[in-house]
Write a structure and sequence with these properties.
single chain; mainly beta; 1 helix; 11 strands; 54% strand
């Protein structure tokens, strides 16, 4: 009787700890490029990590991490967006905080809050204003149609920062 209760308690604790984060990692059938996957944002952090995949996020997302290579994401609103990897393409209507770690990633947004770019040859395009831009890399391309309130460029040959 004691083992059954202990085993049930351990399994319940494991289920609770896993429910705090949603990871989407669906392999492509036959190695082909899958069509985009629709994912509804929830309160839990969302991790997208299947390389060579495409996602459409619906609703307001609190915390999204994109890890891997060549992942395409379209979203309405992301409060905290972390990109780790190379060759990502993200289109988001608005973000609160953006962190790019990697090479040759592209982010397009209507509105932006704070952005930190660590890596080389990344592209950031914001239609309206950007609060903070901190660049720690080289040959990054920035296009902000509105105003950038605070810029720190710690790299070389970064363009579009006037």
């Amino acid at each position: 009787m004691r083992r059954v209760i202990l085993g049930t308690t351990v399994m319940a604790a494991a289920a609770l700890s896993l429910s705090a984060c949603i990871t989407i990692n669906v392999p492509a059938p036959g190695g082909d490029q899958p069509s985009s996957q629709d994912v509804a944002c929830k309160a839990a952090p969302l991790v997208l990590k299947e390389s060579d995949s495409s996602y459409v996020l619906t609703g307001d997302c609190d915390d999204v991490s994109i890890e891997g290579q060549n992942i395409t994401v379209a979203a309405e609103s992301i409060d905290q967006l972390d990109i780790s990897g190379d060759g990502m393409l993200v289109t988001v209507q608005e973000f609160g905080t953006l962190s790019i770690n990697g090479q040759e990633n592209a982010v397009q947004s209507g509105d932006g809050g704070d952005a930190v770019i660590t890596g080389d040859r990344n592209k950031l395009s914001v239609t309206n204003d950007l609060d903070v831009l901190n660049i720690n890399g080289n040959e990054n391309s920035i296009k902000v149609d509105g105003f950038i309130a605070n810029v720190r460029d710690n790299g070389d040959r970064n363009t579009g920062i006037e």
